[in-house]
Design a protein that fits this description.
Distance between the termini: 37 Å
Shape: elongated
CATH topology: AOC barrel-like
Number of strands: 8
Strand content: over 45%
Radius of gyration: 20 Å
Number of domains: 1
Strand order of the largest sheet: 1-2-3-4-5-6-7-8
Structural class: mainly beta
CATH class: Mainly Beta
Largest sheet: 8 strands, antiparallel, barrel
Mean pLDDT: 90
Low-confidence stretches: none
Length: 184
């Protein structure tokens, strides 16, 4: 009986350590951004949407996000242009194996330089699990991106943008099923 308890305890600890392991993440991407028809019902905000694709630590992926940012710029000690903070938003990664990873914005925003027509965006995401290999995933990812106007409306206002950047951070809860060995 004592031996059986030891075996069960050892197996439980081994499984827990697999799911507790943090994997560092670095993924690069490019794609597009524009206003969104999705209404997040946040007062005094504009809703935007990005669709990007990339590759990195977890493999090839696409990523779609819908986010609401403040209509009016806010003070920022890190932005020399106009800073528009994110109010809410969520995104979905789809990986080549069909697994989905769900994230929500916890902080960040866009620093827009209207003189040079470029935005530098930094957003922090909480990982909220997903499907397939991300079913038990948790962690934090940070997006850093550069946004450039690609198309303007009839009044000259940019309405469609190019997006390039990267995600960095850590993820926990990945199963050790052989794929994890590739990440180490």
């Amino acid at each position: 009986m004592k031996r059986l308890i030891t075996i069960v305890l050892t197996a439980t600890l081994a499984i827990a350590s697999v799911y507790a392991q943090q994997t560092p993440i670095k993924m690069t991407f490019s794609g597009t951004g524009a206003g969104s028809t999705v209404d997040l019902k946040q007062p005094n905000t504009n809703t935007g949407e990005e669709n990007v694709a990339g590759d990195g630590t977890l493999g090839s992926f696409t990523f779609r996000i819908v986010e609401a940012s403040a209509n009016a710029p806010q003070p920022s000690s890190t932005c020399s242009g106009l800073y528009f903070p994110n109010v809410s938003g969520a995104g979905l990664f789809r990986f080549q194996d069909g697994s989905l990873l769900i994230v929500t914005i916890t902080q960040g925003g866009d620093c827009i330089d209207f003189v040079h027509l470029v935005a530098h965006c930094t957003w922090t995401f909480k990982i909220n699990g997903g499907t397939g290999r991300f079913q038990n995933a948790s962690g934090v990812l940070t997006l850093t991106e550069t946004t450039l106007p690609a198309l303007a409306d009839g009044s000259g206002n940019p309405v469609f943008f190019s997006e390039t950047g990267q995600f960095t951070g850590t993820i926990s809860g990945l199963p050790d099923d052989g794929y994890q060995a590739v990440l180490r």
